[in-house]
Amino acid sequence: MKPGAGSLRALLAGDRQADRVVPPSGFTAQLTLFAAGAMAFLAVFALALSLAAGRLAERWGSELARTATVRIVAPLDQRAAQTEAALRILETTRGVATARALTDAEQQALLAPWFGPDLALDALPVPRLIEVIEDSDGMDAAGLRLRLAAEVPGAVLDDHGRWREPLVQAASRLRLIGWVSIALIAAAVAAMITLAAQAALAANAQVIAVLRLVGATDDYIAQAFVRRFTLRALSGAAAGTVVGLIAVVLLPSASETGGFLTGLGFRGLHWLLPVLIPLLAGGVAFAATRAAARRTLRGLS
Amino acid sequence: MIELENVAYSYGGGELLSDITLKLAPGSFHFLTGPSGAGKTTLMKLCYGALLPTAGHVRLFGADVRGLGRDDIAMVRRRVGVVHQDVQFLDHLDVSENVNLPLTASGRNAEAAGGDLAELMSWVGLTNRANALPPELSGGERQRAALARAVIMSPDVVLADEPTGNIDWDMSQRLLRLLIELNKMGKTVLIATHDLSLIRATKAHVQARVLRIANRRVQLAGADL
Q: A13: alpha, beta or left, given left = phi > 0 and alpha = psi -120 to 50?
């Protein structure tokens, strides 16, 4: 039995008479359809998770990597002067595109979730925040820290590294888990289809014996089973993928307040990727059935 | 065509056939006889590559069977039509589809061979049963359908293992006449049977060589047949 393009061509072309030599088997047909459909449904979500996690990792990585914050923690009477001093240093620092002190209103807005909208900033020792945006070359954070320490004693530079790294790492792990899930789903489909194919081959031992007697080659016999299981897996997975996509569409839409979970979905050209799931299921079924048929037929005279 | 040279076959630790030398020449007619369990079916299976000898050489159309791959064996079976006593059909296909199965399995266009199929069905007297399912056939009809399936590829050799075992005398004679006709068309025929009356009836119509399996060996049977 030679694998390759010939088998694939025969699979796609089909042979109505060859398809008929193996009797229809309700149980294995339904099992294969259901397994492929359920696994495709799960694969859609694993794919959505993986892509969403990838987007998150990219966003966190790029957005936070290009920004920094300088906190001015100084007595109230020195805060304005130290803020001005820090801004002057930032303006002359290579790699800093813009630097600006947040207004009272912006700082109030930042604290509003915890203290309410009517917070009087004067009543609390709230540091002044300076938002720093880096240019494409990036700044030398260590050098800037030294300059600030020397000239603005109340300034603390936070380049977001300690926030960014664990977040990006978590998102990257989530993305990896998504891809591993897809691989495990493919392996589970292969295992289930192998079992179903072996059951079908065992149930059709007499059919195989007759076909061997009349001069059918192993390729011909295997093809009858391979084509059947591949088409079942393909159609089951297509149905599962459609249902999975509908479920993804029905998820709440992404929003700032919703966080990660509401961003679980596909964007742009990524909507085309689920099309690959039925093709993957068909490919897995083709390989699994072919291997099972080859093993079984080799054991027969 | 089919040659066995010093062939032995062992099964389950015991030797079933020993030192068998046999040659089926083109156009010859052979009977293989012997008591039940003597090894007739085993010898038949050696003749179409369903079993491999444990010693000696089996040559099918000039090639040693041990050197043949699975696809080569499949090709050999297209040149050797086989009829068993317990005929196996695909019960979900009708008789004409079953008869046509060797053509289908060899990838030949069944529609193109449709005329041949109708002629063949008529030859074995099953034209009216073409659309019946195998379980609906009588024993004799099953044997005739099996013979039609065995010869649809126009094989060089026809092997029939106890073809009349399950059918009455009249039907046996009818089947035998078909096999004799095939031989007259130039086909090599080997029939395994323990029915000596069948052999006697045949010898009136065709020059048949009668072989007997005894004590694990094949001998040329005497004039007492």
A: alpha
Q: What is the ipTM of this complex?
A: 0.86
Residues B105-122 pLDDT 10s: 887 765 555 557 888 898
Range of the domain at A36: 5-61+168-298
Q: Look at chain A and report how many structural domains it folds into.
A: 2
Is residue A178 domain-shared with residue A261, that is, in the same domain?
yes
* CATH of span B2-90+154-220: 3.40.50.300
pLDDT digits (tens, 9 = 90+) for A128-162: 999 998 887 888 888 999 999 899 989 999 887 77
Q: Return phi, psi of residue B14, to 5°.
A: -110, 150
Cβ-Cβ contacts under 8 Å, A217 against chain B? 70-71, 74, 105
Residues 6+ apart with CB under 8 A from B7: B17, B19, B20, B21, B22, B46, B53, B55, B56, B57, B58
Q: Is residue A283 part of a domain?
A: yes
Q: Which residues of B touch A297 (CB under 8 A)?
A: 70
B93 in Cβ contact with A20 (< 8 Å): yes
Which residues lie closer than 8 Å to A15 by C-beta, 6 or more apart? A223, B107
**Is B50 in the A-facing interface, judged by CB distances under 8 Å?**
yes
Residues B74, A209: C-beta atoms closer than 8 Å: no
Q: Is the overall model pTM greater than 0.95, yes or no?
A: no
In a domain, A22, yes or no: yes
Residue A68 resides in a domain: no
From A153, A182, A212, the end of a domain falls on A153
Q: What is d(CA A197, CA A289) in angstroms, rounded to the nearest whole number?
A: 6
Is the CB of B101 less than 8 angstroms away from the CB of A217?
no
